Amino acid sequence: MADLRSLIYVSEATRPLSEADLGAMLYASRAHNATVGVTGLLIFERSVGPKGRFVQCLEGEGDSVARVFARRIVGASQHTTIEVVWEGPIERRDFADWSMKYARSIDAAPAETTDLLRRTGRLWP
Ligand SMILES: Cc1cc2nc3c(=O)[nH]c(=O)nc-3n(C[C@H](O)[C@H](O)[C@H](O)COP(=O)(O)O)c2cc1C
Fold first, then answer.
1. How far is the CA of 75 from the centre of ligand 1 (A)?
2. CATH numeric code, 4-119
3. Helix (H, G, I), strand (E, B), or coil: what is residue 86?
4. Which ligand 1 atom lies nearest to the CA of residue 32?
């Protein structure tokens, strides 16, 4: 793929989210991402901050990543204070097999997260 890029952001949950809430979000996200060639990882850390923290890594063709982020993610009601912590070109996908992998902590997704940890160094002590 010519223009492969990644975007990583962090955000705060706006309300307590149940497993069913998360399941519905993931279902909708995976269905859409699959149609536009976006892959990635969503971490939801329930115990960080008042209602939980999201860290999401999106990867794919640059325009596709930008569109998913701007049109689908920024306006979603379940989170707020969205802050992009890394954005740039990548040589290969870390989550090629996942239209959106899900993890409850950085430790629960160890294999592919070396680059993620490097790029988001300040998020995890
Ligand atoms: C943390 C988070 C991550 C999301 N990731 C994606 C995604 O990767 N792809 C996508 O198409 N939509 C994504 N969405 C949007 C959801 O699929 C869905 O459209 C949204 O949560 C709908 O919520 P609302 O109608 O209550 O605002 C995400 C939403 C949130 C809150």
1. 8
2. 3.30.70.100
3. strand
4. 11
